[in-house]
Design goal:
Layout (H helix, E strand, L loop, with lengths): L8 E5 L7 H10 L4 E6 L7 E6 L3 H7 L5 E2 L2 E2 L1 E4 L4 H5 L12 E2 L1
């Protein structure tokens, strides 16, 4: 199994309501990132998303995109921090790391 060299995900907030996962992925791809999975959250977490990249080096690129306009909204890109329950279940096949649509 490939060893992780650092975090590979970011959390994005202030997304336009109804923004598609494809549009969110395209934004990061167009800015030089190789996207692995994207999840746009719904319910009370709407307007937020999680992007996982192919390599940890893209996290630094993505963080620099914070404040950029995506479909009329200035998005905020934040380091992704695992919840304690995610840490506890990290060996579970249904790990949060695997959630999201592949690109």
């Amino acid at each position: 199994e490939k060893q992780r060299l650092g975090p590979t995900s970011v959390f994005v907030i202030n997304l336009k309501y109804g923004l598609s996962e494809e549009a969110l992925a395209r934004f990061f791809v167009d800015n030089g990132c190789k996207v692995k999975t994207v999840a746009v959250l719904s319910g009370r977490n709407r307007g937020r998303g999680k992007i996982t990249f192919e390599d940890p080096s893209f996290v630094a690129v993505a963080l620099q995109l914070s404040g950029q306009i995506l479909e009329g909204y200035p998005i905020q890109v934040l380091p992704y921090k695992k919840k304690k329950t995610e840490e506890k279940n990290k060996n579970d096949d249904r790990s949060q790391e695997d959630l999201g649509r592949e690109f």
